[in-house]
């Protein structure tokens, strides 16, 4: 190819944009939204599920944990499959499974049937999630991609805040199964739109790494299980799963480094931008993991809000996150990925500090301002860090790269819930009077149920102090993430356009 023709090809490639790309983004956001809303509305529905299905605490815990285990365990495998067989195909298959399993869950007549539905939903979610981000980076070029990623992450925030409100409304007018039935029309709409609007994309044909898949599934499930169970069972009850996690994940790493066609390119961790983004995301998701749980209890049991008023109280966080998602996308173009990530993380740490300053008498506006600051930091930091991580991954491995991003965040989130939850519980119990009832010393909900004004007042003060300690630990984790990003994310760029990568390959061939 002559230099003139190559220049012409490069110019044409850069100018060529999918005319349906913004409609495709709507489909991807719908697919993501159905996952986020489902998990958030479920927490609101658990009390009614417990009564109707005669489900005990252990069964309810399994309703939540079985989804997390299956979802986290399959992410790397489904990301690899999407690169191999087609990202649209895998996403649509996931939506079909998720919608069908939602029907099963909606009309479940026993806790076991509901858990089975949640397991299938976890499989569907694992097929959907990596495909959405990998399709996004193949449809949008590097100029528009920061805005698209910001919208994609913004939808998650919207679902996190809007889910409980929607769940409260549904439960007020219908039965608990309506929270699952809601998923069906959204999934059906996303499937129809995917076939009508979305192009298929996949990586180069390569053999499927079946041993790698098996090792990753067992290792990841063992790790997440250990994290979930450790706070209640300790080392004595989790040492077997911890040992299994170490053995299988080490075996997985050895397999991926030695095989000719690895499922996950572990050499990516030699790239300091990828490593810095990964560890930063782990710590940020660790820090934010207990946010909803902590503030929900604070607003309901300390400030005395109703469930719907509690959900609406999260509005400042949602609005702030959405606004700064959009602002961050523009700043990435002007300042670069690393500065925006660092600014966002510092603001995020400031939000954690503001939340740590809340007391039992703070009131709505202090909490609203603190949540708005936190939302601003998350809105700036998360899309920029995700963009940097994806920018270090070859375009032909976009699916498994997206899965790595999701797995990193899931692991950080699970670890955060376990560790920060333990900090909260330990500090709260230690702050309660020794003569308080056992139920009141275990949780603030147990204290409120007693109806004893002295116990409730002590519980409100103890919980506020425990929450402050937990948010200080959360802020410290974000500051550590900021230091890591400062040193390792030098030279980070937004993910490169696939067309540009192809043109570079063509240029190398021409030379």
From TrEMBL:
Signal peptide: none annotated. One of its GO terms (cellular component) is plasma membrane. Keywords: Membrane, Transmembrane, Transmembrane helix. It is found in: Cell membrane. CDD domains: MFS_MMR_MDR_like (cd17321). Residues 24-493 form the Major facilitator superfamily (MFS) profile domain. It is a multi-pass membrane protein. The chain crosses the membrane at residues 22-47, 59-77, 89-109, 115-137, 149-169, 175-198, 210-228, 234-254, 274-299, 311-332, 339-358, 364-390, 411-428, 471-489. GO terms for molecular function: transmembrane transporter activity. It holds the Pfam family MFS_1. PANTHER family: EXPORT PROTEIN, MAJOR FACILITATOR SUPERFAMILY MULTIDRUG TRANSPORTER MFSC. This is MFS transporter. It comes from Nocardia yunnanensis.
